[in-house]
## 1
Amino acid sequence: MKKTFFGILIAGVLGMSAGAVEAEAGGVSVAGDIGVYNQYIWRGAPQNVNKAAVQGDVSLSTDIGPGALTVSGWASNTFASPAPQFAGQDAIEFDWTLDYSGSMNNIGYTVGSIYYTYLRDSTANFVEVYGGLSYDAPISPSATVYYTVADASKAVNNLNIVGDIWLDLGASTSVGDYDLSTTASFAFYDNDPTRTAARLNGKVKDGIQVVTVAASRDFKVADLTITPSVTAVIPVVSAALDGQHYIYQTQSDFNAVFGVNVGF
């Protein structure tokens, strides 16, 4: 099923990108990309240990007022499904985003919502709203905050709970043809009673969680943009009682993520 899904995803992205020129003439632009990475790390927490990740995105965007409204869908293989009937199969993550973004006088802004869904593990579904600001400069600072507004059934594996806050403070620049960025991320977890034991043993801690440093370069090939990248993921949250670092109650070690993305 995973191969079938990604075959459909690739065909869909190619088909939609081929029609992008016509769509733009009608006031709607279409974009898509697909990438392959050695692993999938989300906010410092590994999502598919020792497995490559295939990830793709398709978006529709139209100008409204001073900004643009965008609807997008993103997908990736992720952790092994905990459901007995899907033993040995990966869950497939689908993220659905509604975003409004724009800029005024070098200040960029974005607001929106993300619905995280998981094929073969619906108990992990949750919804966030977010807002962010950035400033266009030789070294561009940014700040984006995410707030969890809905979760699933608070199953044991549902690690995102209503009231959770995640804050990214970043900076980006370009050196020659290379794009460089770094982000310091902070978590402020809701005091849900299901987390009492995890707080006591140090697996849930508020404050700074992870620092990421990334470098990438775009290559134009015909109508495609090919972007190889490398990202260092450095957990900085203080260790739990067992000496390990945890983010969203998931053991998090230093990781390097390598990948190539193709944009249409």
Note: The longest strand covers residues 90-104.
## 2
Amino acid sequence: MAEWHPAFEEYCETIYELDEDDVRVVQARIAERMGVSRPSVSEMIRRMEAEGLVDLDEHVIQLASKGQMLAEKVVRRHRLAERFLTDILGLSWAVAHTEAGKWEHVISEPVEAAMVKVLGDPTTCPHGNPIPGSHYEPPSTRALDELLVGAAFRVERIPEALEFEPGVLDFLEDSHIVPGAQGTVTASSPDGTVTVEIDGRAVGVGSFASQRILVSP
């Protein structure tokens, strides 16, 4: 693929991830996720449409084929970088997420291939999100807050929306709410908080996270 300015890559990545999380992709959602102004988003979307990266269906923004290819390349390198930074360098989830945001723009094809070899061709990032171009097979999942008290579960995936909430990645990692961890729902509050027991510890998960953490019963 042709090289693109990092701003185009970041916008394509954001649109891809919002769609992946089943969020209606409009300018307001992009502005919220990226922490930029609505006018800035409007101008960039206009430029991306002119470049053939996005299509607009009324107010909904969709990646065109060229934009989809660019997004998959960037997301793939971001998630491989997260896996390398956590599995090989031992960095925390939160630090790896921030650093991968820099690496995704500069990883070359030879480096990417070497990372895949060292990591054993992983199919997900550390949070369980699929790596584009891998042999990922999605498990059958449901949101944590849909489980009844007493239900056992296995954590499968921490969606991107939670990665952008301050402190959430640190909280989940410290609480062992990570892909592969097994637990039990021990309580559910009217405010949406779900209490789970994982590794002998009781942890309260607020509604915003419990509605998004994907588990397999």
Note: The mean pLDDT is 95.
